[in-house]
Structures are given as C-alpha cells and as structure tokens.
Amino acid sequence: MKVAVVGGKLQGTEATYLAHRAGWEVLLIDKRQAVPAQGLADEFYQMDVTDDASSLGSILRKADLVIPAVEDRSALKSLKQATAREGVPLAYDEASYEVSSSKKRSDRLFGELGLPAPRPWPSGGLPLLIKPSGSSGSRGVLKIESRNELNAFLSKTVSESEDWVIQEYLEGPSYSIEVFGHSNRFISLQTTTIEVDAVYDCKRVLAPADLSSDLKDDFGRLSRKIAQALHLEGIMDVEVIQSLGRLKVLEIDARLPSQTPTVVYKSTGLNMVELLFEIFVKDSLPESAPIDQEKAVIYEHLKVTPEALEVAGEHIMAEAGPLKIREGFFGADEAITDYRQGKPHWAATLIFTEKSPKDAWAKRCATIEDLKEYFGITAFEDSVP
After folding, report:
1. Does residue 96 surpass a pLDDT of 70?
2. Which pLDDT value is given to residue 149?
3. Residue 37 gets which letter from DSSP?
4. Taking a C-beta distance cutoff of 8 angstroms, is the pair 1, 25 a contact?
5. Are 275 and 264 contacting, i.e. CB atoms less than 8 angstroms apart?
6. DSSP state of 155
7. Domains, the chain
8. Which of 17, 31, 23 has the alpha carbon at shortest distance from 1?
C-alpha cells in the first residue's frame, strides 16, 4: 500500500506519521526542499504540482491514495485534475473545503443551523478576537482590549485586501473533534483538549478531554449536524470553546488536521488515514467508531535554544528541518524532532502516553527536568494568552 502526501509541513507530517503507523509507504511531494515531513517519508519529490502535469502524473500513478496536505487553491485544483486523469482516489471534498476555508462562510453556516457561536462585532462587546477569514490556525489572530485599539485596527486595515472576522473574545477551555462522512452517514471520534500559547497557536493537545460525558455527546451531535449540512465526504475537524457551561463553535476545517489525529491514535488506536482509505478507496464507512479504552496522552511542542526550553505553538515545528522519530527521547515515549547531537537550536513534538492523566503529566515533567539538566538550561517557558 502506497499513499502520496502532497505538502510537507504540519499536515503532511501528520499524514506521513499516521500512514507509517498503518504500515504504508509514503511518497511525499513538496515544492520546497528540507520540509519537516521529508525526514519521515520513504520517497521525496521536490515539485510544484501546478507546473509539470506529466511528472506529477507519473508519481501519482504509483499511489493507491492521494492525501492533500496543502491549502493553496491552485495546488488543490491541479491535484484534482491530475488524480482524475490517473484514476487515483483523492481524499478531498472540494465543496466542504470551500465553506470551511472561509471563516465568514463557516460562521454563516453556524447561524443557519442555529448553533451557538461567539457573537460577531458589534453585537459582541469588548474584548474582541480578530482573525483573517481565509487562514487556518493562529496566523494573524489578534485580541483587541479597547475601543482605541479597535479604531486603530480598523483605520489600518480599511485599504487592505484581507477579509477579517471580528467577534467577541470568550474565556474558557477549547476542544476539538474529528467527524467523518460518506454517503450521508457520519461518525465522530474522540474529543481532545486544545491548549494554546500567547499568540493563540496550539502548543499542547490532551486526551481524553476533561469534558463531561453529556458535553462530549453534545459535541458529537453538533459536529455531525455540521457534517450533514455540508454533505461531507471525508474528514472535518471542529473546534469549540466552553463558555458559561455551553460549547460554542469556533471554526471548522474540512481536511486532515495536524496534531489531534496522532493524539486520537495514541489514545484510542483509531487511525484517521485508514478511515480516509475506507471512504475514498473502499467506498465505505464504519457504522461507528467505538472507543473501548482511552489512554491518557500529552502531545506538546518544545523549542530548545542554549538559553531556554520553551513550550510553544505548532509554528515551531513548521519551521523545523526534516524530522525524525526518536523513541524513548529523554523519557518521552516518542519525539518527532530535528534534534541531532551538538545542534544548538532545535524543536520537538513530545508524546507521552500513560494509564492516567496524572501519570502522563508526571512523565512529561520528568522529561522537561531531564532535558534541562542534560543541556544545562535553567530557563523554562510555557506561555498562555
């Protein structure tokens, strides 16, 4: 079994990691050299998929499934055309992606479905959260505390082409869930807890989520309701925030996300790329995704310099060089890292798995202390918004 992953940054790293856990070979394609997922792939092809249809086709013909890990529309269009020519399944729902890739279109959908969500400005008062409509993750996200800050932002961006979403800022824990759809049937998987750094970039994912069973059930129903409205074929990620005892929808992404799929796999054994194979190759979807036992998992990103250890958002992994998997890394079960002996600046995704959250956190803290001692570093940072 071979899968072609197009895009070698965060989503590509996720897809490659999980494909190997499924026992598959990975052909990785990216227009850049030395991308993070390159160190994990079996074969790497440096190529702009929008340039050479013939060369692209010759690579895709080797694959049983193609997983896009890019958000560039021209690249997605080229992939859709190339896979259609070659008769290779593409794990991509274009219609759902078009809605989820725009926060404004997504917010309109939430309103049409009557789903709780942050109130848009000016209905929502200060403080406010401002984010680009067409970007994913934390890029460009701002918190506005005062009317003066808001006026300064509005005057600065009047002439800019970026489309912005302005809504009330909510305090509370955030959660994520993946939902799969096929032939008007939908299943949701495990809920995970999302923790962010000072710039609202995800720094840590925890499983199982510290959420009541009733709210987990509500989250599953909510996610499946969105998937049904989109007629989803494939995968979608839904993120919510718990505010005043209610779950409010923040955003959706109809693509394989980064971070949470590996956490769900480590906690439950469910592999999301295998579910994509079921949908796009076998034309089927399980009736449900039962979870018999949830292991406790901590998954966090660490940036290391000679001066400090810093838990930071996933952007540090996107900026890392080719990654390798190292088992038993300073006490962590696994590290996905560009570390090598003598390298002064490096990054790692550390993965800890235990029977209980308490035991997992103790293991994580021991690893941090071991790293500080080994590298002679005293400063440790773990920022929050």
Report:
1. yes
2. 83
3. G
4. yes
5. no
6. H
7. 2-91 (3.40.50.720), 98-103+171-280 (3.30.470.20), 119-168 (3.30.1490), 296-382 (no CATH)
8. 23
| Helix (H) or strand (E) segment spanning residue 46 | strand 43-46
Q: What is the pLDDT of residue 41?
A: 98
| 68's tokens | 């896009």
Q: Which tokens hold the place of 61?
A: 């013909």
| CA-based nearest residue to 31, from 56, 11, 3 | 56
Mean per-residue pLDDT for 124-147? 78
Angle CA(107)–CA(113)–CA(118) in degrees, nearest 5? 40
The CA distance from 310 to 382, in Å, is 6
Reduced to 3 states (helix: H, G, I; strand: E, B; else coil), residue 217 is helix
- The torsion angles phi and psi of 181, rounded to 5 degrees, stand at -135, 145
Distances (CA, A) of 330 to 177, 237, 296, 351, 373: 30, 32, 19, 11, 11
- Cα-Cα-Cα-Cα dihedral sign, residues 67, 73, 78, 83: positive
Provide the token pair at 230. Answer: 């989109």
Three-class DSSP category at 344: coil
Query: Quick one: average pLDDT of 271-280?
Result: 98
- Which pLDDT score, from 0 to 100, does residue 33 have? 93
Closest CA to 222 of 114, 93, 118: 114
Residue 195 has pLDDT above 50, yes or no: yes
pLDDT in tens, 316-360: 999 999 999 999 999 999 999 999 999 999 999 999 999 999 999
- Provide the residue type at 56 as one letter: L
Q: What percent of the chain has pLDDT over 70?
A: 97
Q: Using an 8 Å Cβ cutoff, are 217 and 209 in contact?
A: no
Q: Give every CB contact of residue 141 below 8 A, 6+ residues apart in sequence.
A: 129, 130, 131, 199, 200
In degrees, to the nearest 5, what angle opens at C-alpha 39 toward C-alphas 300 and 296?
Answer: 25
- Taking the C-alpha atoms of residue 300 and residue 203, their distance in angstroms, rounded to an integer, is 6
Q: Which DSSP letter does residue 118 get?
A: P
| pLDDT tens sequence across 9-51 | 999 999 999 999 999 999 999 999 999 999 999 999 999 999 9
- What is the full DSSP assignment across 242-260? EETTEEEEEEEESS--SSH
